[in-house]
């Protein structure tokens, strides 16, 4: 009985790791935001996502998103060939990993994309 509990606990822990990846990506964007000002973040996100800074700022405000959530919603929408408003709406009732799973978004693609975003923001900071 004790070994069944241990095995079950290990399986639950391992299944949670992929779900935590999306939160890791959001955290990475939030960490970048802590070392950048609002203008740098919006400019980097704008360049990376192809959405104007003004629109991004409005989306953050209207959806009560932080930079990480804003980025993830746009990244999911792009990868799933969906629109931002649908993903933002889904995020009000579903967890990010469930949205990603439902939309069949490649989690490795998201991880790679957030690395590219970081480079874009760092490059825009260094060019000033």
The gist of it:
The chain has 128 residues and is mostly helical. The chain has helices at residues 2-34, 38-49, 53-63, 67-79, 84-90, 96-102, 107-126.
What's the structural blueprint in terms of helices and strands?
Blueprint: H1 2-34, H2 38-49, H3 53-63, H4 67-79, H5 84-90, H6 96-102, H7 107-126
Can you describe what's shown?
The protein has 128 residues and is mainly alpha-helical. It has one domain. The protein is 80% helix and 0% strand. The protein has 7 helices and no strands. The protein has helices spanning 2-34, 38-49, 53-63, 67-79, 84-90, 96-102, 107-126. Mean pLDDT is 84; it is low at 6-19.
List keywords for this structure.
mainly alpha; 128 residues; 80% helix
Q: SSE order, as H and E? A: HHHHHHH
Spans of at least 5 consecutive residues with low confidence: 6-19
Q: Give the integer mean of the pLDDT values.
A: 84
- How many structural domains can be distinguished in the coordinates? 1
